[in-house]
């Protein structure tokens, strides 16, 4: 009954079982164990490309270290103002880059349009010593609004970035949800569309604490081993991060879990949009639903014990509902039913 966040979900049993198996006996530390090395190859296989892989334990670390590998201290990172890197990471990208500036590019439904990025970069003051210099485009897929960038949209943005000399980073904390929503391959949504480096998430979708920085531009990998160590994310017992990621990826589990989450979100949106006075704010393309509901409907769900966020602050009537791999359809139907009862 908790739709506050996919971070509230438990580990998937297969991930938990994998951790128990990894705990049997000794293994070499710092990623030198066979499992960690096998997972790096498995990720490369999923993306159909030779790439460098760095396991870390949080999405914030993945984003901040990935951006730092692309951006000098005098650089600028272009992103949507609602992006997690700008709004929810306590200055981590700025810290790990040594002081780079995040520059917001507005756009509806959490997305940046190629023409707006191009206009912003035209006015960036490239080569002017008094201005930070454009260095990185950071996209979020799926976005903080629950929308997704299709490969063609990513490619158009990457083309603009290339023309202006920027590297392209994708925050993929919900990358599985984006892929399921798009119906495309990991390669099509990443390097084939011009992405240089990807934060590949597992924590929100069935893992305990497992993320990967996937580097398609090998030159960007040169400093990441040192950056990860300096940031405290080179785990001595790396096998336990690897075990999670291995189970997560095995037999397409990660996509199956995202399908359940996305299906629950679609049903929430469908059911709630049919209520009198309700309005879904953004297209529901992954596992997040933003909906304006009459206060009696919200009050009824809160009284019944359902958890969600009033997105615009206490007393406001916009809810963010996030479904997870473990969301049950009976809870989805229950939320809709209780919200409807509040309007009777």
Any overview of this molecule?
- The protein has 344 residues and is of the alpha/beta class.
- The chain has two domains: 12-252, Aspartate Aminotransferase, domain 2, CATH 3.40.640.10; 253-341, Aspartate Aminotransferase, domain 1.
- 40% of the residues lie in helices and 15% in strands.
- It is built from 13 helices and eleven strands.
- The chain has helices at residues 13-22, 34-46, 59-70, 84-87, 92-97, 114-122, 151-163, 175-182, 224-230, 239-249, 253-273, 295-303, 329-341, and strands at 52-56, 75-79, 101-104, 133-140, 167-172, 197-201, 211-215, 279-280, 288-292, 309-310, 318-322.
- The strands form two sheets. A seven-stranded mixed β-sheet has the order 1-7-6-5-4-2-3, sandwiched between helices. Strands 8-9-11-10 form a four-stranded antiparallel β-sheet, covered by helices on one side.
- Helix 7 links the parallel strand 4 and strand 5.
- The protein is globular.
Task: Looking at this protein, list some descriptive labels.
about 350 residues, alpha/beta, Aspartate Aminotransferase, domain 2, Aspartate Aminotransferase, domain 1, 2 domains, 11 strands
